[in-house]
Please model this.
Amino acid sequence: MIYNTQIPYFRFVNSYLKKYGFQPLKLNSSPNQPFGIIVVIPCFNEAHTLATLDSLKSCDSPNSGYRVIVVVNQSEITAVEICARNEQTIRELEGWKANNPNFPLDILKELNLPKKHAGVGLARKIGMDEAVHIFYQNEQDGIIVALDSDCLVETNYFTAIENHFAKFDQSPGCSIRYAHPLNSENESINKGITQYELHLRYYNQALRLCRFPFAFHTVGSSMAVRSSAYQKQGGMNKRKAGEDFYFLQKIIELGNFTELNATCVFPSPRVSDRVPFGTGKAIGDFLAAESQTFYTYNFQSFHHLAFIPTWTKKLYQREKTVPENEKVREFLASIDFENKVKEIRENTSSFSKFEKRFFTFFNAFTVLKFTHFLRDNGFPNQPIEKESQLLLKELGKVEIPKKLTDILAYYRKLDQKEWNQ
Model:
């Protein structure tokens, strides 16, 4: 956290908000009280927000202070019953705030957002932009944290975030360790969330095995970013789903992105239809399926993907590179791979610059398209249990866990081991 008391206080917004701000700012910036961390929580058709606030209230306070912004949001065409739920949520939040006067809570009521943009991305953006404004008015480059309104956190949540960014003072942002609770009374939900989280971790570890530089978890409820980096990369997008993935890729491109494993966020594994994909949708689909088996990307597709990072030196030196698999060649042709590489090579003066530009082109979104292309062309999805075990064998593990919960536990430890902070 940067706080300079020698710089005079100015009442104007910065260039980011002028260029990218969605609407006029609403919150008091409280210039006499610095906040090193601001947590932004979007809230739509939600009945568990008070539990999240109780969890935050129980946390140890960071030296720099914190503030929490809950963005209760809906569109101009939201169904009447959801509007009623949101109104009830606002009353509950206001009652909670009255009973906890020392807790730094702000409630933003965004109840008539345009239907074209209304959704979780816009709700996050509204709250995160408010955080930018508050930090700017207080002459701070503070930390903006994204959380969801159905999450619990460990008691060291704030202090771990503060210490992490102090330790990694060049890091523009980080993903925070997460773990879905596996203690639902509904065993089908436990089985579904175990496989879904394993899918997320399997995919991330597969990308790390392939040595892609952007292999980080991109979960919206467990990420944090410096205000300066947020502004530099154009802020949060207005996507109705997947906003976290696209946003964090922009932050990762800055370099020095980190992982925070000293604390943990516990997202809810419950069913939800608020977004077209993600945890809630995945669990709903799982419960509705005849077979309680979650299917993930075929491990063989990563063998065909792994050569890409090994090619960069050859591509820079103009060596001929042709993949063996016909479908891989077809995919590369579909993204104009050869001409893109030529353009990058002609506009960079060193290998390090070439490699950075290359992975901006062949980025996480392109990799996702690659896996989907192979999925649809000869490498169909397979049960997560089997594919995650194959990856562990590839990583050299001798004793492969058999039970799904044990496999997930190992993958959780694997993620922590690589960033032991």
The beta strands are 37-43, 66-75, 105-113, 143-146, 151-153, 173-178, 223-226, 258-267, 295-296, 382-383. Confidence is low (pLDDT under 50) at residues 1-13.
